[in-house]
Amino acid sequence: MALRVFGIDLGTSTIKIYRKGQGIVLDERNIIAIADRKNVIAVGDEAYDMYEKAPANIAVTYPVRNGVIADVANMLTLLNHFMQKIFGSKRPGAADYIVAVPTNITEVERRSFYELIVNSNLKVGHIKIVEKPVADAVGAGLDVMTARGVMVVNIGADTTEVSILSLGGIVLSKLIPIGGNKLDESIKSIVKRKYNLYIGDKTAESIKKKLACAIPQVEGSVKVYGRDVVTGLPAEMEVSSDTVYEAISEYLYAIIDAIKIILERTPPEISSDIIDSGIYITGGSAKIFSLDELIHKETELKINICPDSANTVVNGLGKIMEDHKLSTLADSLKPKTFVR
Ligand SMILES: Nc1ncnc2c1ncn2[C@@H]1O[C@H](COP(=O)(O)OP(=O)(O)OP(=O)(O)O)[C@@H](O)[C@H]1O
Ligand SMILES: [Mg+2]
Fold first, then answer.
1. pTM of the model
2. 262 and 150 both lie in a single domain
3. Domain span holding position 261
């Protein structure tokens, strides 16, 4: 590997980049604002500020959907901008790139991660791919190289990936299209139905961060602003924690169902390892209050909510590039493998 190495976790809501020897050098919303279909006016957190506030000629969009690159052209523009931000005015030299990719995707979708780097403005040495669950487990501080099985559940923005790992590889995994965004949407629609209040995605997300609790909890509420569905005028309402629970619980149970399906298919020797060490929960949505309590109640297993859960994948890429004992976890993809 070259002296300069970057690890990239292209998430649905955020992009995180790790630089060898430095740590996380970029953590921004993975979003782009384009005016009149051609002029990029903002990227990342700055574009997110414009989200749901921009006039009709400005499109503010997320190029990654359900964990895969849905809008290649805009993702390429974003990557070029983000890397330029990291390099600053210095002319970037060649670097190696390690990219985390979801496991259950098609060959074409997988290839698009590789091609993104190849087609960027970057001077590229080697490109390596790491399966997301592997990076995730390493970032969560687990030893994945031994024959001891581990279970990791990453609850992100658009997806939840449930995986069983052993001996540096994936034994079983399941990717479901449920994550924090579904919870936000559900909060939005319940607030509209119950309070006749139309709220935006950002407000729904902030209600979730303040009140979302996986078990019915003691009373709590937040004041929110939106538009009254009936009068069309700006209005303010108090949204209660039981309303938020009502909105999110069915999705939390869908995540638990996916965990149970994987547990049922887990080879018995690995099951006994999991009884010992428990389930590791990662991803930004792992921060929902009392999530450990609910999953424990449903599975009777020990639940570990990983600290800094939103960064486990990118930190795992970091460990893989810093520790040569882990280098076998990254696969090289050779350009000639691909038909262009
Ligand atoms: N304190 C919190 N409580 C609840 N949810 C949170 C909290 N903080 C962040 N989240 C949610 O975590 C999600 C982002 O997590 P993460 O960064 O792991 O996703 P991602 O990697 O962009 O998405 P994906 O892995 O699905 O592609 C968002 O839906 C966000 O609302
Ligand atoms: Mg993610």
1. 0.95
2. yes
3. 141-305
Q: Is there a single domain that holds both residue 88 and residue 196?
A: no
The closest-lying atom of ligand 1 relative to the alpha carbon of residue 155 is 18
DSSP per-residue string spanning 227-243? EETTT-SEEEEEEEHHH
Label the pairing between strands 279-282 and 150-155.
parallel
Q: What is the Å distance from ligand 2's center to 103 Cα?
A: 12
Residue 130 and residue 167 share a domain: no
Residues 289 and 148 in one domain: yes
Same domain, 171 and 126: no
Residues 12, 118 share a domain? yes
Q: How far apart are CA 161 and CA 279, in angstroms?
A: 13
pLDDT band at 17 (very low <50, low <70, confident <90, very high): very high
CB atoms inside a 10 Å sphere around CB 5: 22
Ligand 1 touching residue 312 (CB < 6 A): no
| CA–CA separation, 178 and 101 (whole Å) | 17
Q: Which amino acid is at 216?
A: P
Q: What percent of the chain has pLDDT over 70?
A: 97
How remote is the CA of residue 310 from the centroid of ligand 2, in Å?
7
| Pair 114, 191 in one domain | no
Closest ligand 1 atom to Cα of 310 = 18
Tell me, in angstroms, the distance from the centre of ligand 1 to residue 283's CA: 6
> Which CATH number is 146's domain given?
3.30.420.40
Residue bearing tokens 């038909």: 339
